[in-house]
Amino acid sequence: MGRSLTAGSLLDESLDALEAGDAERALDLAIEGSRLAGRGDDLELSARLAFAEGQARLALGDSPAALLRIRTALEAFPDDLDVRVEEASALHELSRFEEAADRLTRILEEYPEDAGARWLLGLCLERLGRAAEAERQLERARHLAPDDFPPPVTLSPDAFEAVVEEALAELPEPVRAWLSNVAVTVEDLPETEELLGSDPPHSPSILGIFRGSPLGQKASMDPWSHFPSSIALFQRNLERMALDREELLAEIRVTLLHEVGHFLGLDEDELRSMGLD
Q1: Residue 186 sits in which domain range?
Q2: What are the CA-CA distances from residue 162 to residues 132, 152, 166, 238, 272 (Å)?
Q3: In a shared domain, residues 167 and 259
Q4: H/E element, 183
């Protein structure tokens, strides 16, 4: 005999799945929990399920829908620190940096020792061109939570480009031939306009991007299709996500292969199945 599922048990399982990094399962559980909770009048439980759904959608890159669900939770829990920070995170993912920075500044007035809010504020200020303030916030976050926010692993521009060149040289000869007319560049951070040019918007933390149409295709509705195809790797984002030099070198290669996969016409599911997500 199968066990009886309740909205509360589904919330617990959704939170466990989020903790384990399985955002897809967390989302399915939260949606089913919300369906069951809708049959009753437990508004607090419904709001907590909305928050779990918002967190899962944010992890999966669906920032617009995530923000809506997080704000549903925020209506029920306007003073909850986690919900407030997650709203700011969704705004950051949508490149709404001024709004996110405003929310985070107010949060830090109440919770000055919250390292996550400080880190996120630093990222927003960086995107707003306030470099000195941004670095102060990022450094403070590192001081408050060194395990969560270690110093970035950095390479000189020449060393970074050398790793990219080595990775390109390791590609099969036919792929290198196809890439002969594709510029591969290293940039500091993605431009906000390019982030907003996708639906949903690209995350400001993206590691790389393919610009153009896949090999053998020209999409007239794609504004990039009228320009030569290119691949950009974003050095600062790559450096921040690595814990050590070896991880950084590996991630540069994986990101390059991911974007080459897009050039070859592979979609995200196909790239994920090849371990290139």
Answers
A1: 157-273
A2: 29, 19, 6, 15, 26
A3: yes
A4: strand 183-187
Q: What is the pLDDT of residues 138-179, one digit of tens each?
A: 999 999 999 999 998 999 999 999 999 998 888 888 878 888
In angstroms, rounded to a whole number, what is the distance separating the alpha carbons of residues 204 and 217? 27
Residue closest to 61 by CA, chosen among 205, 254, 263: 205
Average pLDDT over residues 256-265: 83
Distance CA(39)–CA(170), nearest Å, equals: 57
* Same domain? 24 vs 117: no
Q: ∠ CA(218), CA(60), CA(58), 5° rounding?
A: 120
**85 with 74, same domain?**
no
Q: How many other β-carbons are positioned within 10 Å of the β-carbon of residue 200? A: 15
Copy the structure tokens of residue 107: 């949060």
Q: Give the integer Cα–Cα distance in Å for 4 and 13.
A: 13
* Domain final residue pick, 78, 95, 115: 78
Are 91 and 168 contained in the same domain?
Answer: no
71 lies in the same domain as 94: no
